[in-house]
Amino acid sequence: MRLALLIVTFLFTALPAAAQSVVADLSQSRVSITASFAGSHILVFGAVKHTEESRPKSYPVLDPIDVIVTVSGPRESVTVRKKDRRAGIWINAEAMRIDSAPTLYKIASSRPLEDILSETDDLRHSISIPLAVRSAGDAGEVENSEAFVEALIRIREDTGDYEVLPNSVRVIDQTLFRTDINLPANLVEGDYTTRIFLTRNEQVVADFTRVLYVRKVGIERWVYNLAQDQALIYGLLSLAIAIAAGWSASAAFRYMRGS
Amino acid sequence: MQIYLPIAEVSVNAFMLLGLGGMVGILSGMFGVGGGFLMTPLLMFIGIPPAVAVATEANQIVASSFSGVLAHLRKKTVDIRMGIVLQIGGLIGAGLGVVLFNFLKSLGQVDLLITLSYVFFLGIVGTLMFIESVGAIRRARNPAKAPPPKRRQRGWVQTLPFKMRFRTSGLYISVIPPVLVGVFVGILAAIMGVGGGFIMVPAMIYILGMPTKVVVGTSLFQIILVTGFTTLLHATTNHTVDMALAVLLLVGGVVGAQIGTQIGTKLKAEQLRVLLAGMVLLVCGKLASDLLLQPAELYSLGLSGGH
Question: Do residue B112 and residue A216 have CB atoms under 8 angstroms apart?
Fold first, then answer.
């Protein structure tokens, strides 16, 4: 009995921290895109640090901590077009420009997002997919701008560029957490923002941001730079390759028939 | 084997691209068409951005056309003189076409106009060619039934000045019709963004009266210059030519073009024409159904700022 009391007291004093912070890291800070790049994955891991000083003495037993990890690709503006039937044929009628949509967006969480995050905090931190896509701007052009944003999300979810991964973050002893996030093979070069949120009672109590650098290397880098910086030489080189290939195939076939 | 394409920024299967290139190369060698009309939608289907698909395709066509032309040159089925005359017309037409394109763009709905004119031209050309070549095959099977067709007399063509001898084609005609054909195809090519082999080949057969065998090689000859120019233009202005993608496609393409040329020379002229007509109608039907049927996904994504 005494022992039980002691444990309870211990729990009250040790765990119930009103403020937490999070320390985390990625298994790698760079992803190198080589010619044979076929996707990659990163391990996001970290620990919850309980800061003691702001802890009220008589705090009740706390709800468990949950972890949300988001990975966001570089942002770019996207035009969403909608087809409509005019005079019997289907043509692109309305179009809406979405100012800033990430090329890739993955959300991993320790439990389903709706159970561990309030709408207010989602709005504040732009965590869920619809909030990560920003469409302020040309909304006046089309009647139903929400349908266009939904269409963008639907198309990108179908291709796997946007993904929600509930129950994929493992939290150990309310302190350690880890998750694996797969990066697809069609990764675009850029800075990928990785954010980690700690939530408790559906509220974000701490967050942490790391940037993952995705870069082309080797021959990929060389070809890309040449195409951008020495466009004329690049174009001529492409033509030279085409002519040489055409000639050698012809010569090879003639040789094969000759012998 | 996956390869990451440096400009398209996607990872694709190398063997699939080799196969695609080979398939389109065979068509190219057989019919004297570039094959961009087929390859561009296929590339977009496997996830290559449209701008990269169009530009890289032009580069690949240079290779397969060059490979095909060399094969045709050995068989002496390229009318170089005719090709150059058509080319001159084509360059004038391309210039006019760009002006026209920008005018249409200022009016809006240029995409729709392109598709409609595609359906219209392909439909007419395909149907006429199909009827004609089926008729020719019938006549060839029952020579007793119908007298052999006389060589058509083009009265108005014969009266035009600036006559020139095209020995390979066996023609002695004015240069005005070929130049006009070139101009017309050049305009279409600039507006539709294709090499124009589809329109050029039937035009050479039916308007200029060139023998079918010579037409294929000559068409390939003039396609090289058009697509070569297009490649450079895309490379310098949009930076959308993907060298890695082009190499994979053209390795398949040049081999395919050689095989296609072999198949082409074994077929009879009418058979070649009926196959080409069938293919023209197929593409026409696909475009028409895109316009008429309700698409599964009404929405599509495009990058702002890009083309």
Answer: no
Place of tokens 């993955």: A106
Residue A187 has pLDDT above 80, yes or no: yes
**Alpha-carbon distance A14 to nearest alpha carbon in chain B (angstroms):** 50
Residue B303 lies in a domain: no
CA gap B13, A23 in Å, rounded: 40
Residue A169 sits in the same domain as residue A45 = yes
A78, A83, A227 ranked by CB distance to B304: nearest:
A78
**DSSP code, position A44:** E
Closest of B233, B211, B208 to residue B157, by C-alpha:
B208
Query: Tens digit of pLDDT for each residue in B146-195?
Result: 554 545 555 566 666 677 777 777 777 777 888 888 888 888 777 766 66
For the stretch A55-89, pLDDT in tens is 555 555 567 888 999 999 898 888 888 878 877 77
Contacts of B111 in chain A (CB under 8 A): 91-92
- What are the mean pLDDT values of chain B's consecutive 10-residue runs (307 residues total)? 83 88 85 75 78 82 85 84 86 81 69 75 83 83 57 58 73 81 80 70 81 84 82 81 88 86 82 82 82 78 52
pTM for the whole structure? 0.72
Token pair for B202: 């039937």
Between CA B271 and CA B212 the distance in angstroms is 10
Residue A122 to residues A64, B123, B243, B284, Cα–Cα distance (Å): 19, 55, 43, 50
Q: Are residues A186 and A240 in the same domain?
A: no
Same-domain check for residues A123 and A189: yes
Range of the domain at A232: 217-259
Inter-chain CB proximity A39 and B47 less than 8 Å: no
pLDDT of A8? 52
Residue of B nearest to A217 (CA): B6
Q: Classify residue B261 by burial, with Cβ atoms within 10 Å: 0-12, 13-18, 19+.
A: buried
ipTM: 0.75
Q: Which residues of chain B have a CB within 8 Å of the CB of A78?
A: 301-304
**Looking at the 3D structure of chain A, how many domains does it have?**
2
CA atoms within 13 A on the CB side of B36: 32
Would you say residue B278 lies in a domain? yes
In a domain? residue B135: yes
